[in-house]
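#onboarding

Welcome to the new folks! Below is a worked example of what a typical request in this channel looks like: someone posts a single protein sequence, and someone else replies with the predicted structure as tokens. Don't worry about understanding the tokens yet, we'll cover that in week two.

Example request:
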Amino acid sequence: MIVGFGDRIDMEETLDGAMARVFGGPVPRVGTEAAPSPSERAAGSVKARLDDAASVLKRAGEELRRLQELLRQLREAQERLGSRGSPGTSRTP
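Example response:
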């Protein structure tokens, strides 16, 4: 195998041997897992964004329910105050 890097070139019987000669030492071994392909990274990125969006949507739903409950309480309070009525004031349903 022939390996070249910058101004260094070497030829050995194996790729590891040629790389070791060019780079001045043994070739470091990385884990056996291959790096994810661009499409796998993109899919992971899309999944992460979808997960984030689902989380935001869930929080928004919770906030909407809280706001609806507050609105219900305000309407009840308004009805209680309105039912007391003040003299000379008439309410029409």
